[in-house]
Specification:
This is SET domain-containing protein. By secondary structure, the protein is an alpha+beta fold. The protein contains 11 helices and 17 strands. Helices cover about 25% and strands about 20% of the residues. A 5-stranded antiparallel beta sheet has the order 6-7-3-10-9. Strands 1-2 form a two-stranded antiparallel sheet.
């Protein structure tokens, strides 16, 4: 789930922070300014404009600004890279901030987007109409036959990179399995190249050989690098950037709210039917953890209540727990130092939003009792 941190202007490009180390750990981006550098650059510009507010000689202002730019003792090279060269650029950069100033195409016009962009909101995910399929992708509007349903930029992956080996009872041989991402990739049985669609909701499009209403094809947009289609496999595998894209195209008129379905092919269907052999049929009233967590009226069942109304086998009750600083040494990365484990009784408070990342702060817990006071439930 991705949420906004601030109001976003129509036509703005969306950015998410990977963390400051993302640039520092990549030699090609070692000199890219970081947030602290842009903040420092913004302050330098504000100070300069304030100190020279009554000076109108542009040439003199430029000489004064050049002195600041050439004074290496004032700031480091990353902050220097965040500062405009021309004094005429300072007022505009101070209005929007230097980080945004150096992205002149940060906001695109609607006309530009209609001409160059692709619609990303034709799909929304929900409970699939296909038994045992879980989530599915549904149309948010009427989509005519032959129209684009969704673009799917592709990340190319070497299938061998997804292999996992698990020791079996201490034997010399290990059990070979693949990572779960393999289920969401396109590929060919005679090729080790896999294509993963990195597009919202496209991964939720399910299979139906009889009810399919969509197909995949190579994109005809400028985002597709046509030369990739004829390059040797090893050259594509060696590339560190993406260049391939699918388009999901409607093969018939699709109505608002209708599930979008692809035909994965006979081999996939045979493998799926084999997988279902011996599988437990999911009940119609099956509750996903997403539904349970998002339901404002749902309660967390006590151990006693779970005897008569159990959760599904893949559901677990957990508490979001923040460890005190002095307790952080019981962890090595995301792994527990089991020799340092101990019991501790704390008062747990429900967070408005879960603000802790990873499983480090997710602790298994059993609910022994629940009491209602006013509009709130209190658990023990």
């Amino acid at each position: 789930e991705i949420r906004t941190l601030e109001n976003i202007e129509k036509g703005s490009e969306l950015f998410v922070s990977y963390g400051m180390d993302w640039f520092a750990e990549r030699p090609g981006f070692a000199n890219v300014p970081l947030k602290e550098n842009y903040d420092e650059a913004d302050q330098i510009i504000l100070d300069f404009l304030s100190q020279n507010s009554h000076e109108y000689d542009v040439e003199l202002l430029q000489r004064n600004w050049d002195k600041i730019l050439n004074d290496k003792a004032v700031f480091d090279h990353k902050t220097r890279a965040a500062l405009p060269e021309k004094v005429s650029e300072l007022k505009n950069s101070s209005k929007v901030g230097t980080a945004r100033y150096f992205l002149p195409n940060f906001v695109r016009s609607i006309n530009w987007l209609k001409k160059n962009g692709k619609c990303m909101d034709n799909l929304i995910f929900g409970r699939s109409t296909i038994p045992q399929a879980g989530q599915g992708a549904f149309a948010t509007r009427v989509i005519g036959k032959g129209s684009l349903i969704a673009p799917a930029p592709l990340i190319h992956i070497d299938k061998n990179a997804l292999v996992m080996h698990r020791d079996t009872d201490g034997d010399d041989e290990s059990e070979k399995r693949y990572q779960l991402i393999l289920n969401y990739c396109f590929g060919h049985p005679r090729s080790s190249l896999l294509l993963f669609p990195s597009s919202s909701s496209v991964q939720f499009i399910n299979h139906s050989s009889k009810k399919s209403n969509a197909k995949i094809q190579w994109s005809d947009s400028d985002f597709q690098s046509e030369e990739w289609l004829t390059e040797p496999l090893e050259d594509i595998k060696a590339r560190k950037k993406t260049g391939l894209m699918f388009d999901i195209i409607a093969t018939k008129d699709i109505q608002l709210g209708e599930e979008v379905l692809l035909d994965y092919g006979g081999h996939w269907e045979d493998a799926w039917e084999e997988h279902l052999q011996g599988q437990t049929q999911i009940k119609d009233n099956f509750e996903t953890t997403t539904e349970l967590n998002n339901d404002p009226n749902s309660i967390v069942r006590t151990l006693e209540e779970q005897w008569s109304q159990p959760y599904s086998p893949d559901t677990q009750t957990i508490c979001i727990f923040k460890y005190a600083d002095y307790e952080s040494d019981i962890y090595e990365g995301d792994h527990l130092d089991t020799d340092a484990l101990y019991y501790k009784s704390v008062e747990w408070k429900m967070m408005h939003r879960w603000g802790f990342e990873g499983t480090k702060n997710h602790r298994p817990c059993d609910i022994h009792s629940r009491q209602r006071f006013g509009n709130h439930d209190f658990y023990t």
